[in-house]
Specification:
The chain is an alpha+beta fold. 19% of the residues lie in helices and 26% in strands. Strands 1, 2, 3, 4, 5, 6, 7 and 8 form an eight-stranded antiparallel beta sheet that branches. It is globular and about 45 Å long. The chain binds a DNA duplex through strand 3, strand 4, strand 5 and helix 6.
Length: 208
DNA sequence: TGAATGATTTACT
DNA sequence: GTAAATCATTCAA
């Protein structure tokens, strides 16, 4: 195993048991690790978004909607909320806050650190490729995250966070939720300023 | 039961 | 810049 995953310890549950905006900001710079039979892959989180339902119209838990899909967000923090969209992509979230508060942080982009070869193989791209994990669907594919990871405990399972390094955090409005009216204008997207692994979006959303 | 749609990505023009 | 791919989830009937 690489030095990064061997020397760092798993982030504890109290990290997740805080308001979703706080976690979304603090998660920038942390390392996301995914172990599997195929090997270990890991990347530094450089972009994330907060979803603060039930008040947040952009959140799947808007209005307190409690279904099979959103159920994990109502449970304890530190678990994975994984969902499937557009008929072909998975997205990975961290459940935050306390029990009964259906909040989550969407991980939108990573800077690849460990297991680039495995990531590239899963993505069907050459190892040197620059688009391995610079998007929420892309990073799930690179980390092998899918339906089986729904609801898993990040304090125990194959997927977890470790301490990373400091990041200069900038913020903008969230991506792909224009249907959410006024909520779409909230600056609840956090990213590391200047990092080239941040997902490619319109220039206007990058600034601020 | 059926219809609409989406926290995206990719390949086009 | 636009559009296609593609299906689980959701809600209405």
């Amino acid at each position: 195993m690489s030095a990064i995953t061997a020397t760092s310890s798993r982030v504890v549950r109290s990290f997740y048991a805080r308001p979703v905006l706080t976690v979304a900001r603090d998660v920038i710079g942390k390392i996301l690790v995914a172990r599997s039979a195929e090997g270990v892959v890991a990347g530094r989180i450089v972009e994330a978004e907060a979803y603060r339902g039930p008040e947040d119209r952009a959140a799947h838990s808007y209005g307190g909607r409690r279904t099979a899909r959103t159920e994990v967000m109502f449970g304890p923090p530190g678990h994975a909320y994984v969902f499937f969209v557009y008929g072909m992509h998975y997205n990975f979230n961290l459940v935050t806050g306390s029990v009964g508060e259906p909040q989550a942080v969407l991980i939108r982009a990573l800077e690849p650190l460990v297991g680039l070869e495995l990531m590239a193989a899963r993505r069907g791209l050459p190892k040197e490729h620059s688009d391995l994990t610079n998007g929420p669907g892309k990073l799930c594919q690179a980390l092998g995250i899918g339906r089986a990871d729904y609801g898993v405990d990040l304090c125990k399972g194959r997927i977890f966070l470790t301490e990373g390094s400091r990041a200069v955090v900038a913020r903008s409005r969230r991506i792909g939720i224009d249907y959410a009216g006024a909520w779409a204008k909230k600056p609840w997207r956090f990213f590391e300023r200047g990092n080239r692994c941040v997902s490619k979006v319109s220039t206007r959303a990058q600034l601020r």
